[in-house]
Amino acid sequence: MNRTGSILVGLIAGLVTYAVMSILYAALLASINNASSVSSSGTGVGLAVVGLALLYILPIWIGYQFYKLMKKKSKKVENAVSSKPLIADELAKLAQLHKEGILSAQEFEEQRKSILLHQ
Fold first, then answer.
1. What is the pTM for the complete model shown?
2. Domain boundaries, the chain
3. What is the pLDDT of residues 4-34, one digit of tens each?
């Protein structure tokens, strides 16, 4: 998932959370207004408990899922970067080998071109 997709997932999750919390809050207010009736007060208390639980748990859970996704993506990037040796380091090693006389000028040029072509 690219950066735009990750941002879109975060926005959608936030909007869904907001919508759910708004509905639960509206139901809670309605049950409080109708507290005189016995049947709706039991439902109202249940909705209030569920609403309060979701108010604290759902955003934390969504944030944690988003954190895991970003951590997983960053590990992939770190692995890709760390597994490839730097071109500058390889060229420096070649130059040192040429300077020490281990590689001839022709061998040095062939190896240098090979490194530059396979970046």
1. 0.35
2. 3-84, 85-119
3. 776 777 778 777 877 777 787 777 777 766 6
